[in-house]
Amino acid sequence: MSQNIASAEGRLGILLPGLGAVATTLIAGVYAVNKGLSKPIGSATQMGTIRIGKRTDNHTPLIKDFIPLADIQQVAFGGWDVFEDNVYEAAVHAQVLDKTLLDQLKPELEAIKPMKAVFDKRYVKKLEGSWVKTGATKMDLADQLRQDIRDFKAKNNCDRLAMVWCGSTEIYIEEAAVHQTIESLEEGMRNNDENIPSSMIYAYAAIMEGVPYANGAPNLSADIPALVKLAKDKGVPICGKDFKTGQTLMKTILAPGLKTRSLGIAGWFSTNILGNRDGEVLDDPASFKSKEVSKLSVLESILEPDKNPDLYKDLYHKVRINYYPPHGDNKEGWDNLDIFGWLGYRMQIKVDFLCRDSILAAPLVLDLAIFLDLASRAGMSGIQEWLSFYFKSPQTPVKGMMPMHDIFKQEMKLKNTLRHLQGAELITHLGLDYE
Q1: DSSP E strands, 355-399
Q2: How far apart are alpha carbons 34 and 38 in whole angstroms?
Q3: Phi and psi dihedrals of 95, rounded to 5?
Q4: How far is the CA of 144 from the CAs of 36, 154, 193, 215, 237, in angstroms?
Q5: What are all long-range contacts of 309-318, with beta carbons under 8 Å and residues at least 24 apart?
Q6: Sheet of 213-215: strands edge to edge?
Q7: DSSP codes of every residue in 119-149
Q8: What element of type H or E holds 348?
C-alpha cells in the first residue's frame, strides 16, 4: 500500500548556501537541460531507473516516472555567497563550464544574485568575503537568514523549498555541550558561542522555517543532537554529510568488491590535487581535519576489520589533499592499494581518477533537493538515512552507529525506500524473483 504523498505540482525553490563552482555548475546545468542543450547525466532523479516486480515482468521505469518528483522545469534557484558576483559571473570565474555554453544561458544566470552570506573567517581561514551579513549575535544572523528564506519563497512564487549546503569546508569542531539541546543551542547563538559555525546557523534557520536541509560538506552542521531533534519535532527531513564524488566514490565501489571476494588489503594510500576554491580552503590544516575524518571513516565501515581480522586488521590507510592551482576544478585522485590473496601473496592496484569535481557534485545537489522535497511531501522527518548514497559521512538514526558506506547497499536502500513509498514490493534478491 502506497504512502500518502502530497502533490509535486507547483514550484520548488532550491536554496544554496555557497554560490561557487558546484552551485553554479548545477544551476547552469539545469537551465541547459531545460533548454534542450544537454542531458542531466549523473542525476538519478532524472536518468536513473528502478525495477518494479519480478525480472520477468520487464518493468523498469525511470525513477521520475515511478514516483511523483518535482519537475526541474519548475524550479527556482537562490542562495548566499561571500562574493557579490551574480551566477553568470561566478560560473565564468569558476572555469568549470565552457563559456560558450554559459553565454547561451547568460540572461537567466545573471538574474540570480547572491544574498549576503553569514560568514566568519574563523571557520574558513583561507577565504576572504566582502558580501557578508552583520549582526550583534548569531541569533540575529539566523533571523536574517529566516527572513531571506521567506522573502525568496514569496518573490519566486515557490510552493516548497529545499536547502543544500554548497559552501566551503569549515574547520573541524567537536560536538560540545552547546549542541545537545535546542535550548542550549539557541542560548549559545545569543551568546555568540564559538562552537556554532556558519553552516550550523543556516541549518537552524532552514529547519525553523520548515525547509529540508542537506549538508554537502564534512563540517559539523545539522548532525548535532539539538538540530536532529528539532528536525524531528518540526517534521523536517535532514541529511548529510560531505558529497561523495571523486576518490571516496571510487573507494565505495572498489572496497566492497575486494571484501566480497575475501581479498586482503594491507595498505591504501590516497592523495588528491585540486586547484579550485575547495582546494585552497582545504590547504588550511583545520579545514583539512574535517575532510580527513570524513574520508578515513569509509574503509573501516565497509571492511569491518573487527569481523575480518585476517584480511583488514592491519590495514594502513592514509589520505592527503594538496592545493595545486594549475588543475583548477579538475581534481586528480591517485590511489595505491597493496592487496593480498591466496596464501598471502601480494598484489597491487593503482587508480588515477582524473575527475571534474563540480561535474560530479552538481547532479548530487539536484537529486538531494528533489529527494528531500519528496521526503517532506511524504511526511518523513529527521535523518533520511536512505539518502546515504550521496555522502562520504552519512548521518545515522542512532548516535554512535557506524554508517553504511557500501554504495551498492546504499543504492538498494534508496530504491527500496522509493518502492515502499509507492506500495511496490521490495526487492531483496531472495526467493525466485522470476516467477
Answers
A1: 382-383
A2: 8
A3: 60, 35
A4: 37, 15, 18, 20, 22
A5: 310/264, 311/259, 311/262, 311/263, 311/264, 311/265, 312/264, 312/265, 314/266, 315/265, 315/266, 315/267, 315/268, 316/266, 316/267, 316/268, 316/269, 317/267, 317/268, 317/270, 318/267, 318/268, 318/269, 318/270
A6: 115-116, 75-81, 12-17, 160-165, 213-215, 237-240, 382-383
A7: --TTTSTT---SSB---SSHHHHHHHHHHHH
A8: strand 346-354
User: Among candidates 358, 409, 360, which has minimal Cα distance to 385?
Assistant: 409
DSSP states of 164-231 as a string? EE-SPPPPP----GGGSSHHHHHHHHHTT-TT--HHHHHHHHHHHTT--EEE-SSSSSS-SHHHHHHH
Domains and CATH numbers, the chain: 12-243+358-421 (3.40.50.720), 247-354 (3.30.360.10)
Secondary structure (3-state) at 80: strand
Q: How far apart are CA 100 and CA 118, in angstroms?
A: 33
Strand partners, 320: 271
Helices (H), 235-356: 247-260, 277-281, 285-303, 309-312
Tell whether omega for the bond before 241 is within 30 degrees of 0, i.e. cis.
yes
Torsion of CA 254, 255, 257, 261, to 10 degrees: 140
> Can you tell me the distance from the alpha carbon of 297 to that of 285, in angstroms, rounded to the nearest whole number?
18
**What pLDDT does residue 422 have?**
96
Q: Residue 279: its pLDDT value, please? A: 64
Q: What are phi and psi of 100, to 5 degrees?
A: -60, -40
Distance between CA atoms of 419 and 2, rounded to whole angstroms? 9
pLDDT at site 327: 83
**Residue 377 and residue 6 in contact, taking contact as beta carbons nearer than 8 Å:** yes
Helix (H, G, I), strand (E, B) or coil at 320: strand
User: How many Å is the maximal CA-CA distance in the chain?
Assistant: 67
Q: Which helix (H) or strand (E) holds 13?
A: strand 12-17
Q: In this predicted structure, what is the pLDDT of residue 433?
A: 54
pLDDT at site 435: 46
Sign, Cα dihedral of 92, 321, 392, 207? negative
Low-confidence residues in the chain, pLDDT < 50: 1, 435
